């Protein structure tokens, strides 16, 4: 039988699924076939509603051979041009081309832990700032090759405590490296364990050791990708040590992996490894399981695939509560394993409540509680000790006992009250019938910290503002926000993330941006997951791209080089303001945020500034009002075109719907209905009216095209004589500060032309920034 002759097409990430009972195959390695992407013409883009088809691929000249073996039926793919097995008589079948029986011993069950070479890394001289943490040499190496030469402040504060077995509640500004602050201690522990069991054969599936809960799918995928990046360095090394070249070949392809299945200890090494392999550096050999596996389980992706992955066993599971709870309900073993976790992490814990995951979260957290019998909190007897002795006694109470679960809770925003409560907290009892709590405080107070006094690290900046962030605001009418946004996007080109409070707003703004020629992409919860990831990737690769997002993108997303955040609508809470702003000015880079405030939003803005403890006014963004008027004309026209197009689309849709419904029910439309569906009945627009509407829309489009082609010239600028006028553009041209779309304005970064209001006390934060040189400011 020949598959794909010529050009079998498949959906990317989906594999042909022959009946498992008959062939008993694992489908993963069909990915090794030489699939070729078929480029799809732009006009074939089916839009947002399209159900998950990202790309088409085809494969040619592949022969499928079924072979009976002792382990069951094995499927092999023979690629034309490859040597046949007979040619290679005696040699083991090429692993790349063999799909193993899922139920064969290699599929699951026993695993051989790879034999590891003696390792060392000269951290003292190469990584002096990391050296004191005595991490596993492989982690040092990974950090070194990522060029993370200095721990960030939250990492420096959390690591010693976490490595000592303490429970840690960490609060630090957005983009400050919290993922590795909890991730490194977990990976360190697991690697140390793996090193100890190296060379032995593990009899059963891997036990789940760490569970990381994240509020959004994107964040969960990003965290697993981040941890896998550290592990990739391991894979590359362990492959050269153990001959495993398989693990690195499945590439996630992007910083946010397209599918959870691909994130098992693998990642961005594809190109390099393939090159190595060609040059013969890596010896082919048997498939070796990853030393430490990290898998993401999120909604919106195949639950079946995710169950299959879990059934093979993973070390670290990164999950959103909703999907995880669905799976736990059908998987008792997973539930048992969660009861015996070694690490539990809540990332962006406060958002988990907002995201409506409360019930699932609580159910999962219940599994991690200790049994009621040992819940008695031992009172600390006051035996008349002195201060030093009391401190020693306190010390000995700290940390979890050997083998017990460590809990890490991290966020950029946790209320001070909550942090105080956590410090004083007593252990909760395992009461199955507890009423669900309704706030974050309740939820966290329900966490069963094994550490009698969890360490609380609060490095959140004063007022919630990161030192490298420049804030600004515009006060304007709601109806003018489109024009102001348009002005901002033209005036300060850069990668801009625009937050709106409702999906409807995104749906309205998106066609407008399109008509105005701005590259905008939507991101909200009603988009299919693949489309969400695809839009994120497009945004990342478009330097002047605009992402129109709801708060689904406010937390944790680490999109490199977001230059600006715009709050098109004021956020409802202070936390949302902090987290939205946190998508820019990350990792010590500069960033800019613009808050658009309509009169009816002033009250909210005042309240949120008060709750952030801010006294200073946010500076106003300067506007060239003369140009703004021109831009208003453009946006108004674009809005008219959009509503005309929308009307036509709706009429077409209604007409088609009527026709399709009649066809489906095998009813013949009577003449009245039929003429209505043709737009000729009573109340329906006649063909003539439709024609006239189309002509009007076309005329408006032509007018807009003309407006867009006109240069935007600042007041007082002469375009005829560039050295005259009250503002000479010749000087700017010579200095290279010439703004390409707004003639007469200097090309400057957003924020550099703000009129300063009262100065905030930033000197302390600035000193810290200068002291910590982990990031270069402009990369
Ligand atoms: N020690 C380090 N040196 C340099 N870069 C680092 C270091 N640690 C982390 N980073 C990088 O900093 C960026 C931000 O890290 P991370 O996403 O963990 O921040 P965060 O504090 O979790 O942010 P948020 O609160 O928004 O979720 C990432 O791109 C990460 O790779």
UniProtKB/TrEMBL annotation:
Q: Which Gene3D superfamilies match?
A: P-loop containing nucleotide triphosphate hydrolases
Q: Give the chief site where it resides.
A: nucleus
Q: Where is the composition biased (Basic residues)?
A: 268-277
Q: Which reaction does it catalyse?
A: ATP + H2O = ADP + phosphate + H(+)
Known EC number(s)? Answer: 3.6.4.13
Keyword Protein biosynthesis listed? The answer is: no
Biased amino acid composition, Acidic residues? 98-109
Give compartment(s). Nucleus
Annotated region (Disordered) at 1-27, 79-125, 239-285, 375-400
> Which InterPro entries does the record match to this protein?
DEAD/DEAH_box_helicase_dom, DEAD_box_RNA_helicase, Helic_SF1/SF2_ATP-bd_DinG/Rad3, Helicase_ATP-bd, Helicase_C-like, P-loop_NTPase, RNA-helicase_DEAD-box_CS, RNA_helicase_DEAD_Q_motif
Domain (Helicase ATP-binding) spans 132-402, 159-432
| Record PROSITE patterns | DEAD_ATP_HELICASE (PS00039), HELICASE_ATP_BIND_1 (PS51192), HELICASE_ATP_BIND_2 (PS51193), HELICASE_CTER (PS51194), Q_MOTIF (PS51195)
Q: Where is the DEAD-box RNA helicase Q domain?
A: 128-156
A Pfam family recorded for this sequence: DEAD
Q: Where are the transmembrane segments?
A: none
Domain Helicase C-terminal span(s) in chain numbering: 484-629
Q: What class of enzyme is it?
A: hydrolase
Q: Which GO terms describe its biological process?
A: gene expression; ribosome biogenesis
Q: Where does this protein have compositionally biased stretches of type Polar residues?
A: 239-255
One molecular function GO term is:
ATP binding
Cellular component terms (Gene Ontology): cytosol; nucleus
What's in the keyword line of the UniProt record? ATP-binding, Helicase, Hydrolase, Nucleotide-binding, Nucleus, Ribosome biogenesis, RNA-binding
- Signal sequence annotation: none
Motif, Q motif: chain positions: 128-156
Q: Member of which family? A: Belongs to the DEAD box helicase family.
Q: What is this protein called?
A: RNA helicase
Record the organism: Sparassis crispa
| Phylogenetic placement of the source organism | Eukaryota, Fungi, Dikarya, Basidiomycota, Agaricomycotina
């Amino acid at each position: 039988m020949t598959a794909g002759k010529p050009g079998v097409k498949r959906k990317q990430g989906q594999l042909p699924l022959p009946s498992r009972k008959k062939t008993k195959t694992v489908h993963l390695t069909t990915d090794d076939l030489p699939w070729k992407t078929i480029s799809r013409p732009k006009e074939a883009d089916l839009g947002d509603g399209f159900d998950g088809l990202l790309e088409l691929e085809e494969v040619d000249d592949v022969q499928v051979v079924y072979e009976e073996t002792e382990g069951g039926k094995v499927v092999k793919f023979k690629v034309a041009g490859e040597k046949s097995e007979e040619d290679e008589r005696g040699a083991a079948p090429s692993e790349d081309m063999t799909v193993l029986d899922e139920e064969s011993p290699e599929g699951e069950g026993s695993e051989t832990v790879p034999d590891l070479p003696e390792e060392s890394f000269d951290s003292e001289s190469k990584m002096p700032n990391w050296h004191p943490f005595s991490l596993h040499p492989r982690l040092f190496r990974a950090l070194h090759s990522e060029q993370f030469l200095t721990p960030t402040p939250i990492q420096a504060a959390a690591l010693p405590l976490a490595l000592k077995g303490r429970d840690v509640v960490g609060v630090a500004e957005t983009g400050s490296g919290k993922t590795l602050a909890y991730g490194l201690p977990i990976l360190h522990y697991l690697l140390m364990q793996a090193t100890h069991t190296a060379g032995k054969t593990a009899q059963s599936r891997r036990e789940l050791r760490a569970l990381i809960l994240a509020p959004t799918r994107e964040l969960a995928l990003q965290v697993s990708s981040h941890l896998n990046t550290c592990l990739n360095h391991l894979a590359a090394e362990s492959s050269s040590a153990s001959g495993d070249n398989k693990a690195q070949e499945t590439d996630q392809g992007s910083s946010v992996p397209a599918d959870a299945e691909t994130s098992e200890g693998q990642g961005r090494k594809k190109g390099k490894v393939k090159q190595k392999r060609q040059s013969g550096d890596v010896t082919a050999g048997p498939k070796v399981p990853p030393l430490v596996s990290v898998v993401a389980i999120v909604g919106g992706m195949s639950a079946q695939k995710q169950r299959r992955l879990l059934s093979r066993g993973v070390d670290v599971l990164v999950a959103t509560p909703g999907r995880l709870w669905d799976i736990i309900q059908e998987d008792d073993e997973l539930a048992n394993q969660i009861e015996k976790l070694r690490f539990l992490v809540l990332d962006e814990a406060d958002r988990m409540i907002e995201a409506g995951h409360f019930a699932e979260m609580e159910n999962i957290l219940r599994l991690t509680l200790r049994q009621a019998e040992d819940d008695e909190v031992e009172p600390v007897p006051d035996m008349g000790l002195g201060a030093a002795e009391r401190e020693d006694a306190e010390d000995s109470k700290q940390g979890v006992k050997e083998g017990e679960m460590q809990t890490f809770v991290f966020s950029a925003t946790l209320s001070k009250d909550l942090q105080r409560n956590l410090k004083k907290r007593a252990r909760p009892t395992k009461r199955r019938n507890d009423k669900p709590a309704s706030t974050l405080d309740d939820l966290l107070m329900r966490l069963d910290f094994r550490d009698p006094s969890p360490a609380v690290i609060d490095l959140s900046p004063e007022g919630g503002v990161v030192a490298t962030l420049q804030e600004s605001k515009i006060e304007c009418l709601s109806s003018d926000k489109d024009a102001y946004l348009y002005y901002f996007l033209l005036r300060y080109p850069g990668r801009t993330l625009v937050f709106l409070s409702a999906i409807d707003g995104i749906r309205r703004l998106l066609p407008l941006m399109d008509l105005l020629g701005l590259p905008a992409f939507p991101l909200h919860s009603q988009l299919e997951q693949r489309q969400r990831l695809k839009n994120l990737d497009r945004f990342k690769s478009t330097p002047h791209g605009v992402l129109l997002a709801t708060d689904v993108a406010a937390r944790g997303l680490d999109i490199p080089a977001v230059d600006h955040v715009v709050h098109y609508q004021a956020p409802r809470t202070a936390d949302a303001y902090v987290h939205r702003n946190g998508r820019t000015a990350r990792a010590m880079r500069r960033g800019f945020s613009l808050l658009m405030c309509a009169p009816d939003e002033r009250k909210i803005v005042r309240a949120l500034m008060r709750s952030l403890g801010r006294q200073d006014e946010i500076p106003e963004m300067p506007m060239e009002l003369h140009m703004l008027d021109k831009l208003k004309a453009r946006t108004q026209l674009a809005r008219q075109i959009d509503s005309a197009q929308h009307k036509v689309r709706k009429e077409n849709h209604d007409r088609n719907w009527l026709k399709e419904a009649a066809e489906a029910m095998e009813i013949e439309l009577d003449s009245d209905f039929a003429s209505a569906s043709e737009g000729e009945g009573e109340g329906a627009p006649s063909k003539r009216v439709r024609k006239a509407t189309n002509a009007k829309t076309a005329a408006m489009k032509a007018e807009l095209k003309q407006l867009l082609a006109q240069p935007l010239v600042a007041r007082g600028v002469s375009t005829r004589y560039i050295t005259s006028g009250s503002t000479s553009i010749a000087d700017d041209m010579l200095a290279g500060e010439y703004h390409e779309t707004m003639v007469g304005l200097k090309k400057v970064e957003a924020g550099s032309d703000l009129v300063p209001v009262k100065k905030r006390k930033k000197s302390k934060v600035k000193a810290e920034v200068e002291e910590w040189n982990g990031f270069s400011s402009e990369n």
